[in-house]
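pinned: reference chain
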Amino acid sequence: MKPGPSMHRDLAWALKLQAKRAGERAPSVRGADWRTATVTAENGDGTVDADGIDDIRCMETYSQPAVGDVIVITQSSSGNWVALGRTTTTDPDWVPLTLAAGYTNPGHGYTASYLREGRRIWMRGRISPTAGTIADGDTLATIPTAIRPGVAVAWAVARDAGAMPAVCRLEITAAGALRTFQSTNLPTWVALDGISYTI
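pinned: its structure tokens
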């Protein structure tokens, strides 16, 4: 029995639909593409897995990937995937530091806090003891693990005008202790304003 015209139309339609579906899945046909995905594994070699796609290469700007990050990924026409970076649902804001017992804001200047912008950390605010002066080498706060510089870093920071010039040494240790050093004329407050480092 010879196939009729309707069978030819059905077959042509089925072949067209199959080709369309294959093209939708093939990057070489579809071309470049981007979408959001959720990280399911951080591989430790500059790649992540997300939404069933393995070994997505991270851009340099996407630092410290973590499972659960919602990221933007893009695919080239040759099929290679790249993770552009994480998305955010909130505007980055200043996060108050938890100060050590016996320390507070002196009542002037910003509250001691930090702002994270990718790998860059900014600090601002002032810290004073609840009474007296800041003891040499005393820990004022412990920096959260996620924003520690990983090595000891130090700055000359503003302090009260009890000594001239009105600066003292402030450091963050590798373990995250924020402390100040001034062997004489101990300060009644120190400022974090202008401190910045990368993680």
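why pinned: The longest strand covers residues 33-42. Helices lie at 5-25, 27-30.
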